[in-house]
Design a protein that fits this description.
This protein has 289 residues and is of the alpha/beta class. It has 2 domains: 169 residues, Rossmann fold (3-Layer(aba) Sandwich); 77 residues, DNA polymerase, domain 1, CATH 1.10.150.750. The chain contains 13 helices and 6 strands. Strand 4, helix 12 and strand 5 form a beta-alpha-beta unit. The relative contact order is 0.17.
Length: 289
C-alpha cells in the first residue's frame, strides 16, 4: 500500500509556500507566524530570544544550498535528455535523478561521489530506454566542478566569514568539492565529505563524525547552526542529533522536492530564509540593533 502523502508535502508538491510567513504554514501546523522562525520550536528554552548571532559556527550543506546543483544536473544531463523521444520537464528529470541517487548512495555508501554519479547516469539512461557508453557516464560524474554557485553564495559567505567559523558537511568527494570551493570564494574552517566519512547523508554517522571532530577543536553542538536546503538530507538528521538548523529554502517558488527525496515527516528548523543573501542580511540587522 502506498503511504499517504503528508499535507505539508502536498503543498510543496503544488508549489505552495510553507514558510513560517505563509498562510499554508498556519493551516498545516496550527502555529502562529513568527517572521523567519519555526513556531513549532516555541516551547524550547530560549526560543523566543534566539538569534543568529547566538551561534559561533555555521555548518553548511553545499549542493542545493550554496551550489545550484539542480541547474548543474540538468545542464550536464542534456547530452542524454536531448536524445530522448520526448522532452522531459525539469522537475521530472530532477526527481528521477533524486530517486536513483538516493538508492545508489544506500547501496554503495563508500563509492566516491563522482563515481557514484556515473552509475546514476547509467541507471537514468536505462530507465529512459536509452543506451549510453561508460565513458559518457564518467563524463557526467566529472561534471560537479561545472555546477554553478548561486548568485548570492560567495558574497554571503564572505560576509558570514567575518562573524562565524564556516564548515562544510557535504555528500561529495574531495576532488569535486575543490572545484566548487573555488566558485564559492571563501576558505572554510573545516570540510567533511562523504568520501572522508564513508557514507552519505542523511546517515546520522556523517553528522556524528563532524561533531566529534569539531569537539576536538573545542566546538560544542550548542555553538552550531546547521544551514541547508534539503529537508531529507540535512534537517531530518539535524533534528535527530539535536542540532539547531536554518532552512535555506531555495525552492520556495517551485513545485516538489526536485533532486532530493521527500522526508517522511516535516522536520523542525529554527530559522528559515529563501536565500543566503537574506540570511546574511538578517544577521547584519541583528548586530546593528
Amino acid at each position: 500500500m502506498t503511504a499517504a502523502v503528508p499535507k505539508w508535502a502536498r503543498c510543496i508538491e503544488l508549489g505552495q509556500d510553507v514558510g513560517e510567513r505563509s498562510p499554508a504554514w498556519q493551516r498545516l501546523t496550527g502555529a502562529p507566524v513568527y517572521g523567519h522562525r519555526d513556531a513549532r520550536r516555541q516551547n524550547q528554552p530560549g526560543w523566543a530570544t534566539m538569534k543568529l548571532s547566538d551561534f559561533k559556527v555555521l555548518t553548511f550543506d553545499c549542493y542545493g544550498t550554496l551550489i545550484d546543483w539542480e541547474s548543474g544536473i540538468v545542464a550536464a544531463l542534456a547530452p542524454l535528455t536531448e536524445r530522448l523521444p520526448r522532452p522531459l520537464p525539469r522537475n521530472e528529470i530532477l526527481e528521477a535523478h533524486g530517486r536513483i541517487e538516493a538508492a545508489q548512495q544506500l547501496a554503495t555508501p563508500g563509492k566516491p561521489y563522482r563515481e557514484l554519479l556515473a552509475v546514476v547516469y547509467k541507471r537514468l539512461a536505462e530507465s529512459w530506454g536509452h543506451a549510453v557508453s561508460w565513458q559518457e557516464c564518467l563524463t557526467y560524474g566529472r561534471s560537479v566542478g561545472d555546477w554553478p554557485a548561486f548568485g548570492d553564495s560567495a558574497d554571503a559567505l564572505q560576509y558570514l566569514k567575518r562573524h562565524f567559523r564556516l564548515v562544510i558537511l557535504s555528500n561529495v568527494d574531495n576532488e569535486s568539492f575543490t572545484h566548487s570551493n573555488a566558485r564559492l570564494g571563501v576558505a572554510f574552517d573545516a570540510i567533511y565529505t562523504a568520501e572522508d566519512i564513508g557514507s552519505y547523508k542523511p546517515e546520522r554517522r556523517n553528522f556524528e563524525y563532524m561533531l566529534a571532530d569539531l569537539a576536538r577543536r573545542g566546538i560544542e553542538p550548542g555553538d552550531i547552526l546547521h544551514t541547508a536546503e534539503s529537508l531529507f538530507h540535512d534537517h531530518v538528521p539535524a533534528n535527530q542529533i539535536g542540532l539547531k538548523s536554518c532552512w535555506i529554502h531555495r525552492r520556495h517558488g517551485d513545485q516538489g522536492f526536485g533532486a532530493t527525496q521527500a522526508p517522511s515527516t516535516m522536520p523542525a528548523h529554527d530559522f528559515r530564509f529563501e536565500s543566503m543573501a537574506a540570511m546574511a542580511a538578517a544577521h547584519a540587522a541583528e548586530i546593528a540593533g
